[in-house]
Amino acid sequence: MFFPIGDDNVRGRSKPIFTYLLIIFNCYIFWQQLQLSPEQMENFFYAYGAVPAEIWRGQNLHTLVTSMFLHGGWMHLIGNMMFLWIFADNIEITIGSLRFLFFYLAGGVIAALVHCFVLQGSSIPCIGASGAISACLGAYLVMFPSSRIRVLFIFFSFRVSAFVFLGFYIVQQLMAGWESLELQAAETSGVGYWAHIGGFGYGFIRGFFLRKKQKLEYF
Q1: What pTM was estimated for this model as a whole?
Q2: DSSP character for 125?
Q3: Which helix (H) or strand (E) holds 148?
Q4: Cα–Cα distance measured from residue 178 to residue 182, given in angstroms and rounded to the nearest whole number
Q5: Which of 77, 144, 203, 212 could disulfide-pair with 139, CB 3.0 to 4.6 Å?
Q6: pLDDT mean values, one per 10 residues, the chain (219 residues)
Q7: 135 within some domain
Q8: CATH number at residue 127
Q9: Is the separation of the CB atoms in 90 and 155 below 8 Å?
């Protein structure tokens, strides 16, 4: 399994304040989840997760936002926060903190909407930050295609370009998403592939508008 553990950072006028605050807030919400019993946890997910059938009927639309701060377990949280830490800071440094926050939240909402559109009849809550983070990945691909991503494979690490790593990521998501539709198993796989695809697509398109024409300084 390939897992990113670092990248080339850029210098800019802004500090990635919201990237770090989002990580802290997600961890805090997860810590609060751990205080709940299994029954309370299930009710919590149904109350604040995005249920496609409800969203499609125009109900509980606030969950399009709240769902992106919930996680189903330690590995879900750690994986998402690792991706957020590696890929989001360069974007925030480049475009500014407030613009980044709006971009991140919009990416999460659009990702959840795409998931709900594909699974309109599903009553299973969609949770997790991966849709918003996928938006960061899409923008990163456009804005920093030559940045080098440090990847861990078993006990070895090596660097590949962001173009290769993120290109592989979205191809993998598209293949898995299409297969889930063919097998009619999209809602039982436990992975919101279409939220990933929707978020990435939004970030990729938005990245062309966010990208600055100035020369970036890496360190």
Answers
A1: 0.90
A2: P
A3: strand 148-153
A4: 6
A5: 203
A6: 77 84 97 95 95 94 96 94 94 93 97 93 91 97 92 84 92 85 56 91 94 57
A7: yes
A8: 1.20.1540.10
A9: no
